[in-house]
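Handout, page 2. Input:
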Amino acid sequence: MASCINMLFGVFDFESIKDLQFSVAFYWIYMVVVSLVLMNMMLAIVLDAYDEVSKESYKKAANMKLANRVVTICGDVVSERSFTWKD
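Output:
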């Protein structure tokens, strides 16, 4: 397992395996697959964080719309009462 991690970080003696049968192919297949898996994990973390921030932003925007509507209605009610004609 330590050799696999060392291969991924580039701390590996490639010369020691290049003469073995199929070792170069396995090395490159491992490097490509692990790189794709790690990139997929990073992308999942970033997109999850983006989704969470997006949901919070939507909630704040909806709350602001509601607050603005309430203020508008209250303002309309107050202005109607102040301009009513007294008989």
